Amino acid sequence: MHLVTLIPGDGIGPEITKAVTDIFTAAQVPVQWEEQNAGQTTFDQSGELIPGALLKSLEKNKVALKGPITTPVGKGFRSINVTLRQKYNLYQNVRPSKTTAGIKTRYEGIDLVLFRENTEGLYSGLEVYDERLGIADSFNRITKEGSRQICRAAFAYAAKHGRKKVTLAHKANILKMAGTLMLDACKEAAAEFPQIVYEDKIIDNMCMQLVNKPEQFDVVVTTNLFGDILSDLCAGLVGGLGVVAGANIGDDMAVFEAVHGSAPDIAGQGKANPTALLRSALMMLHYLGEHAKADQIEKALEATLLHKQECTGDLGGQASTSQFAQNIIAKL
Ligand code: NAI
């Protein structure tokens, strides 16, 4: 039995988390959940944004499944997602995007995995504001070690999963120092894995290529901000935010969560698609070595996706979040 910390989050978080835990129960997955929460609701109840009990649970179990957490724009609390990623050095944000039978999109043949650096860059939290001059500076801190870690992780993943190519997306033509650190780190990693083709692309061209000919990409590695933007773009290519999974991985801890946020526009209405969180949970099962259970649930999900009417509205269906989950359970 694997003990896993479960963070339902807020907005649509609790609805999609319940869908996933119901499917896991029905499939008799050997996972025992330890539920802890964070965010505004937790703060209102306990005065803590990230309760000590949540951190203790994470440090003990080393694996978590997390729903999305709202981060207010502008002033307000610092992102809990960014805080957890930095505190536990979860430096890899791994986000697969794949076209799937039944999910309508303009594209076919996409099967790429994005490796986003998860702790540095413009998300380092290093910002100063000079009120007198009206100037805000946000530091794009990139380290040699951080760049090496993420580039190496992308190549190691490619080698382990039989992938053929790694593409670095960067802006080293303008960001002469920070961009060059990533370029050098990727060249270094590429030399260690000569069987994997390596190429680099400037981020603006990368966006155009992704929209124009996404099937050319295999594994993509990039910095924090570019990765954040590219992963939503890639989600759009394969059916939307409701279907793409993600994982924040460090050397000894992993937090699995969907790419999407708390979707306040549809929260509490039973409209949220649980596929993205379910697919994140399946990545977690592979991480835990529970490959057979992951495959069993994935097959049931894929069979459900073939019937549009059994899915949620974002996929053209009419099912609610919980009906969608029941439809998957019926096919296990
Ligand atoms: P969002 O990803 O929550 O929503 C963008 C659009 O996609 C909305 O129209 C939403 O309804 C739709 N959508 C998202 N997930 C869906 C699902 N499972 N099924 C169907 N439709 C879905 O992005 P937004 O609105 O920019 O952010 C809302 C909040 O979420 C913000 O406070 C943001 O900071 C936070 N956020 C949290 C993340 C996390 O906890 N990892 C990641 C991204 C954003």
Written overview of the protein:
By secondary structure, the protein is an alpha/beta fold. It folds into two domains: 1-101 and 239-332, Isopropylmalate Dehydrogenase; 106-111 and 119-237, Isopropylmalate Dehydrogenase, CATH 3.40.718.10. Helix content is 41%, strand content 18%. It has helices at 13-26, 40-46, 52-61, 80-87, 144-160, 176-192, 203-212, 224-237, 275-287, 291-305, 321-330, and strands at residues 2-7, 31-35, 63-66, 92-98, 111-117, 127-130, 135-138, 165-170, 197-202, 219-222, 247-249, 254-257. The chain has a ten-stranded mixed beta sheet, with helices on both faces. It has a two-stranded antiparallel ribbon with strand order 6-7. Strand 6 and strand 7 form a beta hairpin. Helix 1 runs parallel beside helix 11 (321-330) and helix 9 (275-287) runs antiparallel to helix 10. The longest helix is centred in the middle third of the chain and has 17 residues, at 144-160. It is globular and about 55 Å long. Bound molecules: 1,4-dihydronicotinamide adenine dinucleotide. 1,4-dihydronicotinamide adenine dinucleotide binds at residues 12, 16, 68-71, 81, 241-242, 257, 260-266, 272-273, 276, 314.
